[in-house]
Amino acid sequence: MNDPTRVEWREWGQEAFDEAAEADTPVLLSLTATWCEHCHEMDRTTYAEPRIAANLNDSFVPVRVDADRHPRVRDRYNMGGFPSTVFLAPDGSVLTGAGYLGTDGMRQVLDSVRTMWDTKGSGAGRIPRPLREDNPPAGELTADVEAAMLGQLTETYDEVAGGWGDSPKFPLPDALEFALKRDREMALRSFDAVSANLLDEYDGGFYRFASEPDWSGLHHEKLLDSNGALVRAFANAYLHTGKDEYREPAERTIEYLTTTLWNDDVDAFGNSQAPGESDAHTLDATDRAGAAEPPVDEGVFAGPNGLAIEGLCTYYAYTDDERARRYTERALETLREDLLTDGVVAHTLEGRTERKPNGDPVPLLLNQARTLSALTTVASTLEPAVLEDAMAVADATIEHLHDGASFVDGPAVGAGLLDRPLRPLDANVAIADALLELAVLTGTQQYRDLARETLEAFAGASDRFGVQIAGYATTVSRLLEGPLVITVGDEPGTDLHRAALRLADHEKVVVPAADALEAGTARAERGEFVSDRAETPDELSNRVQSILE
């Protein structure tokens, strides 16, 4: 997209901060995303205004950062959404920040920052709280974690419109899946609300969120990561209910991902689709067919592709859908062949991915976690041989990012505040859950121990976690109770293996091709309870039912 602004943008890097230090002037950091309509609007209006652009060019060092392509910058400087307009001292500390600013608002902020800088200089800068308090509050893991999260969901549940909270309304796939096993009625009403309000009935795929409590005020951008997670969530709702009303939204979304977002040049999923013309989404099918297609960001990012692979593979496990399998395998090959080097996952296929001086990719925690989850799902469902790559990813993550009792988001190097460690809760939960699954699939106790240690590192604050972090309670529950494990002596694809995948507990782990069992047999276990061997799907179902009861 052509840049309509008059601002002389610099790229993120030490050179920009050195320029600011030499000129004794602040840095303006503009955090944007290709799918963000307000970002484009701010470019067309605020940054295109000649006097504002001249002020920025003369009195600041303006830096433009794509949030998807620079996640460590995003996570340190995000002001709660995009665009984020952040003013920094040359050492990277934050002077002040805002979101979208119109021309009048920008003029006021520029005057305020200029006065602040002339009065206090770099002394006005502050370090964001997550970067000041390096170690999260640790605690003991108990059943209270699961109970507290269920209480949060119950308290914030919208009895009228479904979903959780007043506004904005996000789909929250982790919360949907947590509730599915613990309050099915609340979960299914929320699934219904998400599909009725956020699913694009014409093109498929889910919109990002709704701004109002009744799910109106739709934001029409579609992101790969949320759509991949929602395919998995709706597939799991179908597993529990057997109802097509939950299978069909997953199917429609897979169709969208494998057409609109599929990048055929590299055999992987593109990152996002912008909203396009705001009124196009209200047109009937005939008129919409003639409307301009909203632009797609075809950038391939490892983490979102990992989520999409996991979602499609989960759907295949329950349906034998060949499209889901085919695209799972194609995207997985790209992930393994083009993005994975000695267990370290490159952030993107684009040349601007972070790399070490020797050319190796820089490990980022969320990429490692999502890739590991994709690999364990594939190992359970399609191909156990990928466990070799899964263990390499786990070991590289531990080697490069494990620090103390938890994980940091990336190496503490880089411009601005990138040299300060950040311990993101969501990424730590993701890696803990993936390590727990890997421990079951490989029988490696070290991975389970690290999952426990990581969860314990955040447990002191678990009673304050909101519904957005429902995955923490899910993983704690799986750790404490032990997941339902179904071990199958057969390679993937036999009737017995397929039956194991379709037993109605989406938090289970299926271990195919187990050396300890003869071909044609399977058994179920949880904790210390181990069932008798089963030789038919019906026998296996009975064995599992006896454990669940």
Structure explained in plain terms:
The protein is an alpha+beta fold and 549 residues long. The protein folds into 3 domains: 14-126, Glutaredoxin (3-Layer(aba) Sandwich); 150-481, Glycosyltransferase (Alpha/alpha barrel), CATH 1.50.10; 482-548, no CATH class. Helix content is 47%, strand content 11%. It has helices spanning 14-23, 37-44, 50-59, 71-77, 103-120, 129-132, 144-156, 173-182, 184-198, 224-241, 244-257, 285-289, 302-319, 322-338, 365-381, 387-401, 425-442, 445-456, 470-481, 495-501, 537-548; strands spanning 27-32, 61-66, 84-88, 94-98, 209-210, 218-219, 222-223, 262-263, 268-269, 272-273, 296-297, 340-341, 344-345, 402-403, 406-407, 485-488, 509-511, 522-526, 529-530. The protein has a 4-stranded mixed sheet with strand order 2-1-3-4, sandwiched between helices. A 4-stranded mixed sheet has the order 17-16-18-19, with helices on both faces. β16 (485-488), α20 and β17 (509-511) form a beta-alpha-beta unit. α17 (425-442) packs antiparallel against α18 (445-456) and α17 (425-442) packs parallel to α19 (470-481). The longest helix is centred in the first third of the chain and has 18 residues, at 103-120. The protein is globular and about 75 Å long. The N and C termini lie far apart (57 Å).
List how many beta strands DSSP finds: 19
Low-confidence stretches: none
Strand order of the main beta sheet, please? 2-1-3-4
**Per CATH, which architecture of the largest domain?**
Alpha/alpha barrel
* CATH class type of the largest domain: Mainly Alpha
Q: What average pLDDT do the residues reach?
A: 95
